[in-house]
Amino acid sequence: MSSLLVPHELTKLEREAIVTHLKGLVDAGGEEMRSFDFNLPGRPPLFIKHSDDVLDEAGTQHFFYLLANSDESSPRVPRVFDAFYSEDGYCLVAMEKIAAPTLSDCGISEEEAVEHAASAVKWLLDQLPLVPHACFGRISSKPAPVWHQFFKEHQAPRAFADPDELAEYVTKASQLCRPNARPSSPVMKALLTSFKKSRCIYHSDIKKENFLFDSKQVCIVDFQHVGVLPEPFQTYAFFNINKAFAASVGRKLGYQPSVTVDAMVKISGVLQQCGGTASLRS
Question: Residues in domain Aminoglycoside phosphotransferase (predicted)?
Fold first, then answer.
């Protein structure tokens, strides 16, 4: 599991310089800013992200960086130099800055953008055999809640240990649906059976802004919504989040909408209406 450990290559002084710059941005009214460019002497240009969840995302990104670095056919993945908590409570990741436009801004057609994103997502999903079998949910060194549009405000209320625990949560949520909107027993049985039979890497935030393109190579730059879940969660991310670009990428990869997965929309709707994090715990 060493490939899941986040690198810590920056010195204490380099970390302090980043935090000092962030504080300056906050003092100047940038409280909502979640990323910024930064330069350190002797280092390549850096891109800094900060949020409560960024350490787990950094572990996922580093894992795929190592895989991409040894595969000439892979998309580019930014190198992670460090991820850390500051004494002030900031959680930050420092990665290489890739100077390339997004698929939205690189001047290519919609069809070309779909093709480039599909090639990157296909490579990502194909890496499942290299993910430690013990990983379920976040691909990180410790259990952490996944990010996926199915859950309330995109974040699961807790880390699920395995498909059975996730299936129990989804079943409980389905029972909160109004009787006339509740998925039928055969549909729920098919859905829950697929949870046990299918395990896949998913990417549930497929949009042009999360891919860069420099005319030669596509780059995946956001790993918050990447992890390991049952296959229906990837189908859901392609066709059930009302994003035409994601649906086009899904079709390009041979995926199709599913009546069984459609049932998850009703369940997700219930979760969005639940209080708190929708933990569904008594």
Answer: 45-228
Classify residue 278: in a domain, yes or no: no
Please list the alpha-helical segments (H only) found in 142-224. Answer: 163-174, 185-197
Is the whole-model pTM more than 0.70? yes
Q: Which domain holds residue 150?
A: 110-273
Going by C-beta distance under 8 Å and a sequence separation of 6 or more, which residues neighbour residue 73?
Answer: 123
Q: What's phi and psi for 46, nearest 5 deg?
A: -110, 155
Provide the residue count of the chain.
282
Claim to verify: residue 251 and residue 156 sit in the same structural domain = yes
Position 1 confidence tier, pLDDT thresholds 50, 70, 90: low
Could you tell me how many helices (H) and strands (E) the chain has, helices first? Answer: 8, 8
Q: 77 with 209, same domain?
A: no
Task: Using pLDDT thresholds of 50, 70 and 90, give the confidence band for residue 282.
Answer: low
Q: Are residues 142 and 247 in the same domain?
A: yes
If asked whether residues 85 and 202 sit together in one domain, one would say no
Q: What mean pLDDT comes out for the span 101-106? A: 96
Identify the DSSP state of 126.
Answer: T
